[in-house]
Amino acid sequence: FEIIRYLMLTGDFQMSRNRLEELLRNEEQGSDSYKMGFYYSFLLAMMQSDPVADSLLGEVLINLPENEKANDALNLFIVSSLLSSSEKEQFFHAYRRMQLFRQEEAVDTLMALYEATKNEEMLILAGEWAQMGNMISTAESIFSREFENSILQDYALLKQAELEGNKNTARIFLQENPQSVFSPAFRRLLGN
Length: 192
Description:
single chain; 192 residues
């Protein structure tokens, strides 16, 4: 699957699809490789805006329920469903850059997408990718922004507190928002 993945990430979708079909041709239905084929078929469909991606997502969730790739697929689907065709193209360009360990390019692309759309989820994702790419000052800068969406604002505060190891921020948040969905994560910060 690594060659298939690499071909996909470099934008050679047809060769990636051909290699996937070749790999799965003699695979027994129900085998781990056959099930993983749904994930890669889903990614190819998403990156090419193929409507079959909807049904492939269902296959991924059914066949790989305990695999983290199922969550990844669901997240990709949800985030990209909020975007226009041209924005999806930009988003998947950023996604491919991130997967190829070109974090700075990926973050820059998401930031440009955010500036064009004002979609705050792109901003959060840019912050997460910056953090994953060890671009800590960029991540801190992103998470310290003001968000219109209160849930994203709370999440950004959590990420900022994690990056800074700021237990005081966690205490204040928990005093003001004891029932927040993010409260357990803030409590973990206090325990460290």
